Amino acid sequence: MRTTRRFWLALPAVAILTLAAGGGTAAAQGRDVLVFAAASLKNAFDEVAAQWQRETGKKVSISYAASNTLIKQIEQGAPADIFISADLDWMDYGQQKDLIKPDTRSNLLGNRLVLIAPKDANLSVDIRPGIDLAAQLKGGRLATANVDAVPAGKYGKAALEKLGAWDGVKDKLAQAESVRAALVLVSRGEAPLGIVYQTDAAADPGVKIVGTFPENTYPPIVYPIALTKESRSADAQAFLAYIRSQAARPAFERQGFTILGPGGQRS
Q1: Which pLDDT does position 69 carry in this prediction?
Q2: pLDDT above 90 (res 267)
Q3: Which pLDDT band, with edges at 50, 70 and 90, does 1 fall under?
């Protein structure tokens, strides 16, 4: 396995523990299913994993981070069994690098992009072409995931460009390593506004939605899922099927995700 010291230091703790425990093939086949999932999926996937454990007695370990971080860790040898990205680009990257099993790939969920503020903010923003979002910041910064690499940041930049608001805020960004990190900046009051997914806003009582981006201003938000090429867990295929089943659907819908059917259509 190609594992550098820098890689070990950057790897999420759950993955490091799994790497340390799963030395041989037999051990790897007997270990928990290890899922690498986009940070915005945390609440829903924690619920699905707990439900799976109750029903089957089998455990799932989940490492959450930005999609770009996760796929790069898989590329460096992290032993994930399932990868769920918050956009098509990073799953495409994984497929091009032969890191996933293409025949197991499908589009799982959809989401929406919203503007948030701290829960006590007295603010409502009409998001429309020509909006002066910089004025709404009142000298503060706009929290967002990294706009060059993290899916939520890329979606947000696309929306701002479409609305003609990018030039006004591009020098006023507080860019975070993931969408959940951007969410925390607003929840703590460290940024007056932030761009996150609708589901992130619903997961944090410290923020509220003050505006919703028109869906025609950014590419469709799609979460693809697939088994990794190097998956060694005997239960990974079964858990993948469970994630796609009707049994898991309520957990995703409670968090505000849209379930995507065949062809990536909303169902």
Answers
A1: 97
A2: no
A3: very low
Domains of the chain (ranges, CATH numbers): 5-109+223-264 (3.40.190.10), 113-217 (3.40.190.10)
Q: What local confidence, expressed as pLDDT, does residue 232 receive?
A: 86
Give the predicted TM-score (pTM) of the model. 0.86
Is residue 25 predicted with pLDDT exceeding 70?
no
Q: Can you give the three-state secondary structure of the chain, one letter per residue?
A: CCCCHHHHHHCCHHHHHHHHHCCCHHHHHHCCEEEEEEHHHHHHHHHHHHHHHHHHCCCEEEEEECHHHHHHHHHCCCCCCEEECCCHHHHHHHHHCCCECHHHCEEEEECCEEEEEECCCCCCCCCCCCCCHHHHHCCCCEEEECCCCCHHHHHHHHHHHHHCCHHHHCCCEEEECCHHHHHHHHHCCCCCEEEEEHHHHHHCCCEEEEEECCHHHCCCCEEEEEEECCCCCCCHHHHHHHHCCCCCHHHHHHCCCEEECHHHCEC
